[in-house]
């Protein structure tokens, strides 16, 4: 009975094996057997094309298995299978038609096909045609990525065929865009190419401009008459794009003019014909001048022993005989005309978008400077106190946010807690500084500057002792990650947008405090005339303390905002103290609108210099300081001057 079962099993295996030899997939593979066995990048192309052209749905699996080096060949009959290694060391063979097991074999009976990287790359290109319609969205996306990296004319037809049945909106948009780009480059029908170019005219995408550039590439040619080709322009000799030397070099390269005999070539020819210390009968000792060497060389030319020298008259004659043209590589005039117009429209939009992007960057930087300077606008602009420790209040606010995040892991909640806490911490620090140091130095600006500078150094060292010298992270909430992308050129990060909104909120808050609260009324009164304010029952000492604390507290909140995108270190305040002072001085001492205008001017100027000289960021700082020095010469009180104590009245 056991013998009978083994016999039946063997017979069934033979029937499966026999059926594997006659399947359509196996027939195609056997027709290309010689090329598949060799698997050379130079010769494998026809075999891969034959597998794709068969139209068999199983060919996608065949190509994927082959690419993954998991295809095996049975040595005895040359059939191809996938194989699974068994526990006993044998291999179970599965056919490509239905994926069922058709028999077993030992390792010595099989040969594993291991295509090299070049062949695998060609297989990957062929697989793209199947993957464009694969049920798996990720495979369709990978196929589009593969086409975009290495577009080929052969992939245009299957790409178009896959568009109609596409169900995913994002993939459909990518397919349609890629189809337009490939139509420009590879379609054989000129009207179709022109229509594709016109459809995308003015597009900002880098891929669009990269597709147009090869269409508009030119080659410079030399001809006696205008050639029958798609000519971009005729180039005149002596113009900026074609000097006389370059034009003659083109004639030499084209074999239309003799090579000029250089001094080195002349001397080499003379040395080659030295006989008995003479050249053409002339003693070598007499050839010490250029004119003598020219005469000796001319004798060699007359004897047919050297090539004639090219005179200036010869060069002029050659240049007068020939014309120079830039000829498009693309033969169709309609295609190049459309491409040229589309590229011009695209570059114009790119220029506008870059200007808008630069403006957004300048606005973003201005909002950062405004946040850093608004507290100083109170302490310096209103009170007339030069507080060199203002940057350290910004640093304290940033470190407060860092400490809060150590205890509150939720980044959104931590920021909401850090903002008022940073205000409280730096408000208290500002009040302490005013009570202990500044109040004794009013109307003594030099002593105030030196004292607060010493405080700033002490605060920096204290921060180093507590937090170390390594930068600490202040992580923004997840909803502030990324950027608002307006188009392919213009974008701005959500953190910068949040800082801009925060700056506007601070502007509104400051205006409310100064215009609608008792503290604001008293501050304005003390600013305009402290003696008169005191006679009206206002305590100038208390107002100065609260005003200084308010400015310091706002600096702490600014530190939290700045710390979200900048490094939090003990020296971070020094990065903003100079810009803060410049913002207040340029805008107009004691005027919040002037501070806003100063921040906009400095931010815009700095970004403009960085745009013109992107390789040297230090130049922006240098030019900005020079600009401010010149500006103050003409408007010493700033953009918006304010009368009162701060203005020097």
Describe it.
By secondary structure, the chain is of the alpha+beta class. It folds into 4 domains: 2-120, no CATH class; 132-215; 218-328, no CATH class; 364-570, no CATH class. Helix content is 62%, strand content 8%. It has 26 helices and 12 strands. It has helices at residues 2-20, 24-31, 33-38, 45-53, 59-67, 117-131, 137-149, 156-163, 169-186, 190-199, 206-215, 244-253, 263-272, 290-302, 312-321, 333-382, 390-407, 411-436, 445-467, 494-516, 518-528, 530-535, 540-563, 574-587, 592-612, 617-634; strands at 71-74, 80-85, 91-94, 101-105, 110-112, 218-223, 231-235, 278-279, 282-283, 323-328, 483-485, 491-493. The chain has a 5-stranded antiparallel beta sheet with strand order 4-3-2-1-5. Strands 6-10-7 form a 3-stranded antiparallel beta sheet. Helix 25 packs across helix 26. The N and C termini lie far apart (121 Å). Mean pLDDT is 84; it is low at 1-20 and 644-649.
In short:
By secondary structure, the chain is of the alpha+beta class. The protein has helices spanning 2-20, 24-31, 33-38, 45-53, 59-67, 117-131, 137-149, 156-163, 169-186, 190-199, 206-215, 244-253, 263-272, 290-302, 312-321, 333-382, 390-407, 411-436, 445-467, 494-516, 518-528, 530-535, 540-563, 574-587, 592-612, 617-634; strands at residues 71-74, 80-85, 91-94, 101-105, 110-112, 218-223, 231-235, 278-279, 282-283, 323-328, 483-485, 491-493. It folds into 4 domains: 2-120, no CATH class; 132-215; 218-328, no CATH class; 364-570, no CATH class.
Q: Kindly give the count of domains.
A: 4
Helix content: 55-70%
Mean pLDDT: 84
Can you count the beta strands? 12
Unreliable runs: 1-20, 644-649
Largest sheet: spatial strand order: 4-3-2-1-5
Distance between the termini: 121 Å
Indicate the proportion of strand residues. 5-15%
Counting helices, strands and paired strands, the structural category is alpha+beta
Gyration radius, to the nearest Å?
A: 40 Å
The global form is extended
* Biggest sheet record: 5 strands, antiparallel
Number of helices: 26
């Amino acid at each position: 009975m056991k013998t009978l079962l083994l016999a039946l099993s063997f017979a069934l295996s033979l029937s499966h094996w026999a059926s594997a030899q006659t399947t359509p997939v196996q027939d195609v593979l056997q027709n290309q057997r010689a090329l598949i066995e060799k698997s050379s990048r130079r010769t494998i192309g026809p075999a891969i094309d034959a597998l794709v052209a068969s139209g068999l749905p199983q060919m996608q699996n065949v190509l994927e298995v082959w690419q993954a080096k998991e295809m095996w060949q049975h040595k005895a009959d040359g059939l191809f299978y996938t194989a699974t290694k068994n526990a006993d060391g044998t291999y179970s063979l599965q056919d490509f038609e239905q994926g069922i097991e058709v028999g077993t074999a030992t390792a010595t009976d099989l040969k594993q096909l291991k295509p090299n990287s070049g062949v695998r790359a060609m297989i990957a290109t062929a697989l793209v045609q199947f993957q464009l319609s694969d049920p798996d969205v990720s495979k369709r996306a990978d196929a589009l990525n593969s086409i975009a990296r290495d577009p080929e004319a052969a992939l245009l037809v299957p790409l178009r065929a896959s568009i109609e049945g596409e169900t995913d909106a994002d993939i459909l948009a990518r397919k349609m865009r890629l189809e337009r780009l490939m139509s420009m480059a590879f379609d054989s029908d000129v009207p179709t190419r022109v229509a594709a170019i016109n459809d995308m005219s003015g597009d900002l995408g880098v891929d669009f401009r990269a597709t147009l550039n090869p269409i508009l590439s030119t080659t410079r040619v030399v001809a006696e008459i205008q050639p029958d080709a798609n000519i971009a322009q005729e180039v005149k000799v002596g113009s900026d794009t074609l000097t006389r030397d370059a034009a003659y070099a083109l004639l030499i390269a084209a074999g239309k003019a003799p090579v000029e005999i250089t001094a080195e070539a002349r001397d080499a020819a003379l040395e080659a014909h030295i006989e008995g210390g003479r050249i053409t009968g002339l003693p070598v000792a007499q050839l010490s001048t250029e004119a003598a060497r020219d005469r000796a060389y001319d004798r060699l030319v007359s004897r047919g022993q050297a090539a004639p020298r090219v005179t200036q008259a010869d060069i002029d004659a050659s240049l007068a005989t020939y014309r120079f043209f830039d000829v498009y590589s693309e033969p169709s005039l309609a295609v190049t005309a459309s491409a040229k117009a589309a590229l011009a429209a695209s570059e114009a939009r790119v220029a506008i978008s870059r200007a808008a992007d630069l403006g957004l960057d300048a606005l973003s930087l201005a909002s950062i400077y405004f946040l850093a300077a608004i507290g100083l606008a109170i302490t310096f602009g209103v009170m007339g106190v030069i507080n060199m420790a203002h940057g350290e209040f910004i640093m304290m606010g940033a470190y407060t946010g860092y400490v809060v995040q150590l205890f509150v892991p939720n980044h959104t909640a931590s920021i909401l807690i850090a903002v008022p806490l940073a205000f409280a911490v730096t408000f208290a620090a500002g009040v302490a500084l005013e009570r202990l140091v500044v109040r004794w130095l009013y109307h003594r600006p030099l002593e105030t500057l030196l004292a607060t500078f010493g405080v700033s150094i002490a605060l920096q060292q204290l921060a180093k002792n507590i937090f170390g010298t390594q930068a600490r992270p202040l992580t923004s909430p997840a909803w502030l990650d990324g950027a608002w992308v307006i188009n392919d050129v213009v974008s701005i990060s959500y953190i910068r947008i949040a800082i801009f909104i925060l700056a506007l909120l601070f502007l509104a808050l400051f205006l409310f405090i100064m215009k609608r609260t008792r503290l604001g009324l008293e501050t304005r009164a003390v600013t305009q005339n402290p003696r008169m304010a005191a006679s009206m029952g206002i305590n100038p000492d208390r107002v100065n303390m609260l005003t200084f604390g308010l400015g310091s507290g706002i600096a702490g909140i600014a530190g939290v905002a700045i710390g979200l995108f900048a490094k939090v270190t003990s020296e971070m305040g020094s990065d903003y103290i100079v810009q803060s002072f410049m913002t207040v001085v340029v805008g107009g001492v004691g005027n919040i609108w002037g501070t806003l205008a100063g921040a906009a001017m400095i931010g815009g100027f700095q970004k403009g210099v960085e745009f013109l000289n992107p390789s040297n960021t230090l130049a922006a700082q240098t030019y900005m300081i020079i600009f401010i020095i010149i500006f103050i010469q003409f408007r010493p009180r700033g953009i918006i001057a304010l009368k009162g104590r701060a203005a020097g009245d």
